[in-house]
Design brief:
The protein has 125 residues and is an all-alpha fold. α4 packs antiparallel against α5. It is globular. The protein has five helices and no strands. The chain starts with a helix and ends with a helix. The longest helix is centred in the first third of the chain and has 28 residues. It has one domain.
């Protein structure tokens, strides 16, 4: 159990640092009120977790430990759903209803689609 917790914690640390760097890079390179940085990491994280679970369902390539490290740890640290909720609340408070609808709707739809595509990719290759 201690080993699993350490794997998840290490994965979470790496995922969180990766989220910060990726989100900041995207947001700093796109000048917009739309939160593209968080949008990017949420969709990418959904794709990654789809690939991880797709691979683990198809083969024994990923051990339980690797699945915990990658899916629970890294992807759990990488995705930012709480930030997503907070940013949507800020958009609503600012009266940016169009951005709110666009951001929340496209993140949910594309997140589910990206997860599906991640699983599908593992079945193709």
């Amino acid at each position: 159990m201690i080993k699993t917790l350490l794997l998840i914690g290490t994965g979470g640390f790496l995922g969180s640092v990766s989220r910060f760097l990726a989100s900041r890079f995207v947001q700093n390179n796109i000048c917009s009120a739309f939160p593209f940085g968080t949008f990017f990491v949420n969709i990418t994280g959904c794709l990654l977790i789809g690939i991880i679970y797709g691979i683990s369902e198809r083969s024994s390539l990923l051990t339980y430990e690797w699945k915990m490290f990658l899916a629970v740890g890294f992807c759990g640290g990488f995705t930012t759903f709480s930030t997503f909720a907070n940013e949507n609340l800020a958009l609503l408070k600012d009266g940016a209803y169009f951005h709110f609808l666009l951001y929340s709707g496209s993140t949910v739809f594309l997140g589910i689609l990206a997860t599906f595509l991640g699983v599908l990719l593992t079945k193709i290759f």
